[in-house]
Amino acid sequence: MPSSRLPVLPLPHPLILLPTARLTIPISRTVADTIVTLIDDSDAAQPVLAAVPLPAPAGDGANATEPGSPPVLPTCGTAARIVRLVRPRSVLNGGSSKQQPYLLSLHGLTRIRLSKPLELDVHTPELIPDHTVEYVQADGVPSRETVEAFKDAALRLLDRLARDSAQPQRKDDWVKVAGMVEDISDQRAAWMADVLVAATSGQYNDRIAFLAASDVDDRLRKATELFIKQTSISEVTKKIASAVDESLSRQQKEYFLRQQLAAIQRELHALHNSHTNRDRDSAPVAAANSPSAGANNSMSELDDDEQADADDLAELKRKIEAMELGSEERKVGVREWRRLKRIPQGSVENGVIRTYLEWLTSIPWPSSGSISDATLEVFKDPAFLSKARAQLDSDHYGLDQIKRRLIEYLAVVRLRSMAEAAREQKQRELEAEATASPGAANEKALVVASAVQDEKNASNALVPRLAPPVQPSQPRKRGIKGPILMFVGPPGTGKTSLGQSIAKALDRPFQRISLGGVRDEAEIRGHRRTYVASGPGMLVQALRKAGRLDPVILLDEVDKVGHSNFHGDPAAALLEVLDPEQNHNFNDHYINVPIDLSQVLFICTSNTLDTISAPLLDRCEVVELSGYTYDEKMHIARRFLLPKQLESNGLEAAQLTVTDPALLQIATLYTREAGVRSLERAIGGVVRYKAVEWAEHLDAEAEVEASGEVIPKKQWRGVVEERELEDILGVPRWDGEEREREERRGVVYGLVVTGMGEGGILPVESTAVPGSGRLKLTGSLGEVIKESGEIALSWVKAHAFELGITTERGMDPLRVPDPIDIHLHLPSGAVKKDGPSAGIAMACAFVSLLSGACVSKDIAMTGEITLRGRVTPVGGIRMKVLGAHRAQVRKIILPWANRKDVEHDVAPELRREMQFVFVRTVSEALDAAFGKGTLGWRNNILMESRL
Ligand SMILES: Nc1ncnc2c1ncn2[C@@H]1O[C@H](COP(=O)(O)OP(=O)(O)OP(=O)(O)O)[C@@H](O)[C@H]1O
């Protein structure tokens, strides 16, 4: 390495001169004199010296030398040409140079290394006239990767600098330099590194390390690191600056607007005051007497906005503080409260957080334990079950089986709750003991826990007798996992009101959630808070309204809830709600804190079971309400509906009587339903009519009293009889039905259950038209019912000879004597019909059509048939029988296998009033329908014997 002897100029900290760079520094007079001598003695016009950076004196910043320790003096520097020495003006003018120093300009040439460290005082560095220095040679070519990395880092830094530059000229300069960096060759990369490090800023230590790097690769790496660091520093700085800027400008804007608002309010107030004063001056007496005098001085509740606001906030805070310590809801509440405090009042975000906090704090959260004290109090009452029975009886007539089932249900819920509460209590005691004396309590815990375990697994011999010690209780994980009741039945049969009675018996709040037509999952689970105008779902709303953790929630019309669509899957959300394994952690998207629904008593209602998904049905215990007989309806009307309507229409019970025949007529001729809703409406109509009459009667009396004249007044009769009903309710809606029903060839009455779960009769009409032996089926029929029709016709064709329809065996009655088609129609064409239960009705209709014999209009039938002529059982017997009774059918033909349904489910009075014929085969059904001996049976051979 070539060396030479050069004067050394120590550069005061933190100055560094890099090769290729220029530097102007102030120097003392002594140093300046030495440099002048140097210039005079030198042969060259611009002599060279070694510029060596000095470390910071002790105690001076991060790069300072340790106080007391000798400063580590550098051994690297830069050979620099003296470009200019400027004398201060005072010296030039012959004055003292004390105030203004000399200025020395240097141009860095190449790196040097000192042969031995300098010996000088870093506090008052002097020029060292002669020192041996070695020139650091950097001839090598750096590796490709190093150059690439260097260029990449340099370009990113230059891009950042260009973007951050405020002046366009400077921006252009950085862009130009970036162009040069892109084009630079590998050999010149080290030179470019010197140029760029000198031109950009960087930390002192990094720059010194860069200066000390003799190897080109090392130098480029150091430059790369330095650039990367600089880029990220400048990115972060920029971000912080813009964030600060943004928040400042928002605050300034808000401040400015508030100032304007305050000024406007002041102006309005002054204007208002001046008006009032002028009015008062012009009418001093009137003003003094006016009731609103002085109102301007006192504030109305509308002016007190800020106070109300502060009160609301204080209330919110109190509610958050009242939440259980360490609970999830409290943590969220506290977090949101802090956010609320940070966000300026009046901003949209502030309102959003406040609404959220209001919801969060209004939900009843469990404070401790899983069963509320109020619930336990009710269950502890020894008369609980008898009271519940009395409640159900006082709200509903009949429904004995259902009431028995509900009492069983309540008994189970009570037992489970009590057991759960006892277990919790035991665990709490153990925990308390464990805290007091850990050793003894642990022993006892083992005994108790094993006892609990023994009790649970009494029948399981494989379970070890010693259970693990009782863990600290986790009340929120448990709950009362009773069955979920599902009331299924036609409208108006008392499903909702039974739910209300259960809530009354349990002394809990009752909430009804109507699920009919719910298509959006968010209606159940709530919208996420990121949505505009988001809010919680129906369950949270019901909980808030109930104000208790354990209300009775009636999920009405679960059969009408929507399934998976692009708004999510409401049915799936419902499943989660009703699953006892999951619902202690129900997640409402809006609240976003797990909510414990395990204590809620869910009751579902539905009109039919057909549209309910199997998993949902699986979670529920179905209780069927089929409808009422006329007798039951009469009792319900007399005991419940009439008193209710009298009360709601302002009449006394003693003022109005509706006779039994009148009530029966309302039930039979004005309504035709399984439930009692229309009956209640009709009774309401009668009561309102009478209420008007009563009011007119009272008015007339008052008029007579006032005038003293005898005015002919409308007579008031407190009794409603049959003959009046037509005047009050109009022409009976169902009167003509029985008359319309006719005994005709080819027409038979079948029994059906509608989609609303209501039973009724349906005519099966058939007619013969010229054709080619085909069967035409109409009336919105499904595949199954169509197949039933074909089976029935095949059976009739196969037995045409035995039935006396054809004259020869094997003759097709649809071709001989004339070729015909049979058209079978089930009226109410707009209503879809399906199922196999119309089999015997269709067979009877075909036989009637082909034989000419008629089936009585008082006979209705149901039953599936097979090709062999067997009659197999069908469902919905109770509803169908009730429907037939309502339609005043006298005789019902049913499959033999449905005997037990009639015995169990059909009320005795119906069994007494109607004739039931149970049949095993189609032939028996035909005999029952047409009457024995009506059909000309030739020889009674069953088809099955030939098959
Ligand atoms: N057995 C009964 N005894 C007394 N009142 C009854 C009885 N059954 C129904 N009601 C009365 O009939 C009316 C309608 O009942 P409710 O609203 O419970 O019917 P629902 O089955 O829930 O109907 P929907 O399926 O349309 O919701 C209520 O006023 C109810 O009190």
Key features of this structure:
947 residues; alpha/beta; Archaeosine Trna-guanine Transglycosylase, Chain: A, domain 4; 6 domains; five-stranded mixed barrel; 32 helices; 47% helix; elongated; disordered C terminus; binds adenosine-5'-triphosphate; serine-type endopeptidase activity; ATP hydrolysis activity; ATP-binding; AAA+_ATPase
Care to give the gist of this entry?
The protein is α/β, with parallel strands linked by helices. About 45% of the residues lie in helices and about 15% in strands. It comes from Coniophora puteana (strain RWD-64-598).
CATH architecture of the largest domain: 3-Layer(aba) Sandwich
Q: Structural class of the secondary elements?
A: alpha/beta
Please write the CATH class name of the largest domain. Answer: Alpha Beta
Strand order of the largest sheet: 16-17-15-14-18-21-22
User: How many structural domains?
Assistant: 6
Instruction: Give the full name of the CATH homologous superfamily of the largest domain.
Output: P-loop containing nucleotide triphosphate hydrolases
Oligomerization: single chain
In whole angstroms, the N-to-C terminal distance is 119 Å
How many individual β-strands?
A: 22
Instruction: Estimate what percentage of residues fall within beta strands.
Output: 5-15%
Helix content: 40-55%
Task: Enter the CATH topology name of the largest domain.
Answer: Rossmann fold
- Overall shape: it is elongated
Bound small molecules, by name, code or SMILES, are: adenosine-5'-triphosphate
Family: Belongs to the peptidase S16 family.
Pfam family, one: AAA
InterPro entries: AAA+_ATPase, ATPase_AAA_core, Lon_bac/euk-typ, Lon_lid, Lon_proteolytic, Lon_Prtase, Lon_prtase_N, P-loop_NTPase
Enzyme class: hydrolase
